[in-house]
């Protein structure tokens, strides 16, 4: 078997298929264009024991474990991102970004290895990069100037109790600030607000609490997970959803399952896609 391929195990029959293009083939923009509200999807890489983030070695803040992160998963993360009109991120992400501690998700096609994804957008007449939505109650983060300088829109989704002077500062920095919930941002209000801005495909690329907001309001359409074949143990950790018990439980159907035997020096990983 070629290192450039993975096994599709579902839908059956099983077949070997190229890794490159795997998630582009899911044609998420077509689904978004056909729906009457935005199509919302997310993606997590996790260990077998369900860890998506563990403490940084410095003890300050959390990070994706180096034992689960890998280039093959990262390629597929970007294939999901490239299909979005807008990425959904968080105040936490932009705080880390300002300190140089965040994984780069905002300008990856500047890297030669992702040239083809930049072209993929250009060929479809899309802006070079998706716009950015930021979920935040604190509003305690700067807008990276390169975003607005390059003409990308930044939509901040916040709650009604957020500090007005911080809303004003973010507007001065070029953001559109939208109140999408009273005490807390609500998943439905956030997605409705982004729909009103004209977005049809939304890639939620943040952590377990924002994920919970979407699940609690039943506005997530697709969940992609990469299960890296390692167990990490340890406390504390983040799993892919955190918050109150979901009532009712959110049920999802298996949409696709791939086995990638080449990742992590041959340990392997699974790419699992669930749909509402
Ligand atoms: N393995 C993976 O695939 C993966 C994917 C994503 C993230 N992660 C990791 O998971 C860890 C946690 O991620 P995270 O901090 O981005 O995610 P998060 O727990 O979902 O929360 C992020 C931020 O969103 C804002 N927020 C959340 N719920 C809100 C609400 N109801 N109302 C208003 N604002 C709300 C807050 O911003 P403010 O503090 O500004 O108010 C909060 O700090 C990170 O270490 C990250 O690297 C891993």
Relevant terms:
single chain; 276 residues; alpha/beta; Dihydrofolate Reductase, subunit A; eleven-stranded mixed beta sheet; two-stranded antiparallel sheet; 9 helices; 13 strands; 26% helix; binds NADP nicotinamide-adenine-dinucleotide phosphate
Layout: helices, strands, pairs:
Blueprint: E1 5-10, E2 15-18, H1 28-34, E3 39-47, E4 54-55, E5 62-63, H2 71-81, E6 86-90, H3 91-98, H4 115-123, E7 131-135, H5 145-149, E8 154-158, H6 164-172, E9 176-179, H7 187-196, E10 201-204, H8 208-216, E11 222-228, E12 253-260, H9 263-266, E13 269-275
Parallel strand pairs: 3-10, 3-11, 6-7, 6-10, 7-8, 8-9
Antiparallel strand pairs: 1-2, 1-12, 4-5, 11-13, 12-13
The structure holds NADP nicotinamide-adenine-dinucleotide phosphate.
Low-confidence stretches: none
Terminal CA distance reads: 33 Å
* Count of strand segments: 13
Counting structural domains, the number is 1
Associated small molecules: NADP nicotinamide-adenine-dinucleotide phosphate
Task: Tell me the strand order in the biggest sheet.
Answer: 2-1-12-13-11-3-10-6-7-8-9
In the CATH hierarchy, the architecture is: 3-Layer(aba) Sandwich
Principal-axes shape call: globular
Count of helical stretches? 9
By helix and strand content, what is the structural category? alpha/beta
> Would you identify the CATH H-level superfamily?
Dihydrofolate Reductase, subunit A
Strand content: 15-25%
Mean pLDDT: 96
CATH top level is Alpha Beta
According to CATH, the fold-level topology is Dihydrofolate Reductase, subunit A
Note the run of SSEs as H and E.
EEHEEEHEHHEHEHEHEHEEHE
